[in-house]
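Re-running UPF0125 protein CODIS_20720 to confirm reproducibility after the cluster update. Everything else is unchanged from the original entry.
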Amino acid sequence: MNIGVAYADRFKQVWLKLEVPDGSTVLEAIEHSGMLEQFPEIDLDKQKVGIFGKVTKLDATVEEDARIEIYREITADPELVERRDE
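Result of re-run:
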């Protein structure tokens, strides 16, 4: 079955199209994609994942043509944020 896996860090976006066995879970698809090796900062215990913009669980079954998205935590470095009251 053909699917996509997408992730974006602060510097680049990656969207991989790949084939996974029928009945694969979101976690299995992410592992198969190689994203965890390409982006070692991904922590699936903390980060959410989704399919086509809807948050889902790692054990959800993937369907044909799904786009799995790994969402990074959105945090701001106080040193880099402009103060609005200045």
